[in-house]
Amino acid sequence: MKSSIIPLQHNAKLYVCTNKQVKGIFVDINFNAGSINDPKGKQGLAHFCEHAIFSFPTKRFATRLEKRKYKSSHFNSNAYTSCFNMNFNLQATRDNFEEYFEYICHNFDQLIVTKEEVEQEKNIVGTEIKRRVKTNKLQSFIIRDKKVYDCKQLKNSFGLPDGIYEDVLTITPKDVENFIKTYITKQNLNCVAITGNITAREAKKLVYKYLYPHLNDGEKVGFSENIISKFSKSQVIYEKSVEKENAIMDIYFPKSSSNQKPSLKFLHENLIAHSYMSSKVLSIIREEYGLSYFSGMGFMFNLQGLSCYTLNIECLEKNLEKVISTLPDCIHRIKSEFSKEEFELYKNRRLLMLNNDVVPMRNLKRTLPETDELFGMTYNQKYLQNVWNATKNAKYEDVKKIVDHFSDEKPIVVIISDQKPQFDLKNFIKQIK
Questions:
Q1: pTM of this prediction?
Q2: N or C: which terminus of the chain carries fewer CB neighbours within 10 A?
Q3: In a structure prediction context, what are the per-residue pLDDT tens digits for the chain, which is 433 residues long?
Q4: What is the 3-state secondary structure (H, E, C) of 291-354?
């Protein structure tokens, strides 16, 4: 089994894992386009467009024979949309793969969008939203071009944004066409992963023959995790909430990328630290104080290394002042209560979750149970072993340094609330040091 990483246009990459011992081929096409790109009032358009690309052509097949051709036992396909990505994947036998690959790629710019199909899909997507929504009190937002946009997202059981039911009902064929033309582009292509009975040379040839002719150049669009670096100093940003009684607060702690070179070891040390800190915030703010219906922490990485830690709290507006007053204590406790026992607990949890970790080669093996015999075990064993080793060999002292210093940089505080709360930034910085 041979693995190759081939650079494509506009910084995209082609991952190829060749396995001549299997009969099938699997492809995963990923774009930097997701619900973060939904226009205001159209929350769910990205998810809807994923459905359109994936489903509309199938609905126009005139006969059962044509439908059966594209849904045969030798062809499986799926698609999904998250906050930042839109993904299409398919599995086919070696003999039929090129035909099906061309069929999927053809939909990226030759898609015919009819009013009737849009109306039919509204019912399908709407049903999916209603089935998966757990609560109507979830809000999410991003910092983009120095503005704060309220991105009122309802999330399904997998944590992926399907959209808001009322917004989806307003989607038009023109909305679908404009989104695909703007975001499903060469500029936005993130990566293509192909695995199975195919060589790297054959894979590259197919990608340029069938995928690129159907993608326009477009402009560089989509959300960038490095946008936080555009803020030159610590500050508080307020935005009026669109939901009465609910407030949301995010605190960004930018990190200097020169402090630590990016490496597999450092990444997985951060994942252990993040697992601990996120759980700690939840237990203090939500379970002990009862002030929040969601609390957690996260971090962002870029090519230079760690770029930012985030502390996120969603609460009732009437509790926001209390949340602000408890934050210094919460941050101090995160640091002071990190013990060797906690370290071992969260390291072991990471090891148990290893196969679900976000690693570049994960998508090289996503076959259904019934097709295992056809497609074989084609994930990258060496890379996964390196991830396992990096996690297993993590040391308490190294992870403790991350926990101790996550809040060293002066924070950027973002508050979305119907009522502007009192927030003394200088005093807050003084208290958390």
A1: 0.59
A2: C
A3: 677 888 998 888 898 888 888 888 889 899 988 877 777 778 889 999 998 888 776 555 444 445 445 555 556 778 888 777 898 988 888 888 888 888 888 888 877 888 888 998 898 888 877 765 544 433 333 333 333 333 343 333 233 467 778 888 999 999 999 999 888 999 889 889 888 889 999 999 999 999 999 998 876 555 444 556 666 788 888 777 655 677 888 898 887 544 566 778 888 898 899 999 999 998 898 888 888 777 888 877 666 667 788 898 888 888 899 999 999 999 999 999 999 999 999 998 888 766 544 343 444 444 333 333 443 434 455 666 777 788 889 999 999 999 999 898 889 888 878 788 889 999 999 998 8
A4: CCCEEEEEEEEECCEEEEEEEEEEEEHHHHHHHHHHHHHHHHHHHHCCCHHHHHHHHHHHHHCH
User: What is the pairing mode between strands 2-7 and 13-18?
Assistant: antiparallel
Structure tokens at 375: 């497609």
